[in-house]
TrEMBL record:
Stored InterPro entries: Nurim-like (IPR033580)
Membrane-spanning parts: 6-30, 42-61, 73-91, 148-167
Presence of the UniProt keyword Ligase in the record: no
Listed GO MF terms: methyltransferase activity
GO terms under biological process: methylation
Gene Ontology cellular-component annotations: membrane
Topology versus the membrane: Multi-pass membrane protein
Family per record: Belongs to the nurim family.
Subcellular location: Membrane
Keywords: Membrane, Methyltransferase, Transferase, Transmembrane, Transmembrane helix
The name this protein goes by in its record: Protein-S-isoprenylcysteine O-methyltransferase Ste14
């Protein structure tokens, strides 16, 4: 029954995360508690982190036979890809306004706006996938040794990224309009494709 509870936990996490990230909930919160509105983003990140901890514990606490384990050269390849994904994530943070992402800027500037203010910029990784962090996350979860708990979690995370990116892109289109629509036609969402990417020059001049 543990994998079933884990699947339900991931579903509850995804629903909570999506609801709290929606424009309508953020706008309602800002109207209801305007003085606390600058703290919403930081609070959202804290809730997202804290509610993920029981799921992480359940993954490691759930016993089960290994469905597959990487060994030999495959172990080196799998873990090399995971380390490369972690490095890519760390490098890619330079392309984002991390103060904005974490919610620190909103608190510092007493910003009560419900929409993100970060501009539309294309980093190196954005030339190949529209959601680099999701791509790195998929690499990490699918390069782990798999028992039933890990497999349920990997499938849940994959579905969440796929569905969540669709909702996220609705917001990005609302903010950036045609520039993002054209970008979406040129670059894949989660996994790079050899024939579908932007050149460095195209990314620099994208409007």
């Amino acid at each position: 029954m543990e994998p079933v509870w884990l699947a339900l936990g991931w579903l509850a996490y995804a629903l909570l995360h999506s609801i709290l990230a929606s424009f309508s909930v953020k706008a309602w919160f800002a109207r209801r508690w305007p003085a606390a509105a600058p703290w919403y983003r930081l609070g959202f990140n804290v809730v997202a982190t804290v509610t993920a901890l029981p799921l992480a514990w359940l993954i490691y606490a759930t016993p089960g036979e290994w469905l597959w384990r990487w060994s030999g050269g495959w172990w080196w390849l799998a873990n090399g890809l995971a380390l490369a994904a972690i490095a890519g994530f760390l490098v890619s943070t330079r392309a984002y306004d991390m103060d904005e992402f974490l919610g620190l800027r909103q608190i510092r500037e007493h910003d009560r706006a419900t929409a993100d203010r970060e501009g539309f910029t294309l980093s190196f990784f954005h030339r190949f996938v529209r959601h680099p962090w999701y791509c790195f996350g998929l690499v990490i979860v699918w390069t782990r040794d798999m028992n039933a708990a890990w497999l349920v979690s990997a499938v849940a995370v994959t579905l969440y990224f796929a569905i969540g990116s669709w909702f996220e892109e609705r917001k990005l289109i609302a903010i950036h309009g045609d520039a993002y629509r054209r970008y979406r036609e040129k670059v894949p969402a989660l996994l790079p494709l050899p024939w579908k990417f932007l050149t460095a020059e195209a990314a620099r001049n994208w409007r």
